[in-house]
């Protein structure tokens, strides 16, 4: 699991998260529409922001739960 999170915090993993976030935003705004589409588009902002910022949010949460 550590290799997965190391990948997700690397350049390729960050690009993947940004890409998937953009896909969620696109699907939410163009394909679904309505309240569900808006919620999906807003949810897509999280992987875009975290991919831009760097750290993998799930990896950080799991590291904290292991250490606590």
List descriptors.
68 residues; mainly alpha
Distance between the termini: 18 Å
**What is the assembly state of the chains in this entry?**
single chain
Strand fraction equals under 5%
Total number of helices: 4
Helix content: over 70%
Total of domains: 1
Over the alpha carbons, how many angstroms does the gyration radius reach? Answer: 14 Å
Structural class of the secondary structure composition?
Answer: mainly alpha
Mean pLDDT: 84
- Low-confidence segments, given as residue ranges, are none
The largest sheet is: none
Order of helices and strands: HHHH
Give the helix/strand layout.
Blueprint: H1 2-8, H2 11-32, H3 34-53, H4 57-67
Brief account:
By secondary structure, this protein is mostly helical. It has helices spanning 2-8, 11-32, 34-53, 57-67. The chain has 4 helices and no strands.
How would you sum up this structure, described in words?
With 68 residues, the protein is mainly α. The protein has one domain. The protein is built from 4 helices and no strands. The protein has helices spanning 2-8, 11-32, 34-53, 57-67. Helix 2 runs antiparallel to helix 3 (34-53). The longest helix has 22 residues, at 11-32. The radius of gyration is 14 Å and the shape is elongated. The two termini are 18 Å apart. The mean pLDDT is 84.
């Amino acid at each position: 699991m550590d290799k997965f999170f190391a990948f997700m915090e690397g350049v390729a993993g960050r690009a993947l998260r940004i890409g998937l976030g953009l896909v969620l935003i696109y699907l939410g705004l163009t394909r679904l529409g309505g309240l569900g589409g808006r919620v999906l588009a807003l949810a897509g902002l999280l992987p875009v922001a975290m991919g831009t910022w760097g750290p993998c949010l799930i990896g950080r949460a799991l590291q904290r739960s292991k250490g606590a």
